[in-house]
Amino acid sequence: MPSKQILLVEDNPDLQMLTRLALGEQDDVVWARDGQQALDYLWAQGEHAGRDPYEQPALVILDMNLPMLSGLQVLRQ
Questions:
Q1: Selection from 2, 24, 17, 19 nearest residue 62 by Cα
Q2: How many CB atoms lie within 10 A of CB 23?
């Protein structure tokens, strides 16, 4: 069955909460606070090392102005 999970990459907690409210009652929203956390999740490394790397989110909502790695750097990788 295809994944219905959403990866929300947003460093601002207020915008993260507003986005989650706009999405409604989605249980499968994973929040990454910076570009490196997003890549760790997508590549199943670091704190997400046990995750199946072949099960990717159906949607990624990506802030372009992130700490550590910008949204553009995440897209490039």
A1: 19
A2: 14
Tens digit of each residue's pLDDT (9 = 90 or more) over 1-52: 566 899 999 999 999 999 988 888 777 899 999 999 999 999 999 999 999 9
- Amino acid at site 65: N
Write out the two tokens for 61: 């909502």
Rounded to whole angstroms, the Cα distance separating 25 from 21 reads: 8
Contact (Cβ atoms closer than 8 angstroms) between residue 9 and residue 60? yes
Structure tokens at 47: 């704190």
Residue type, 68: M
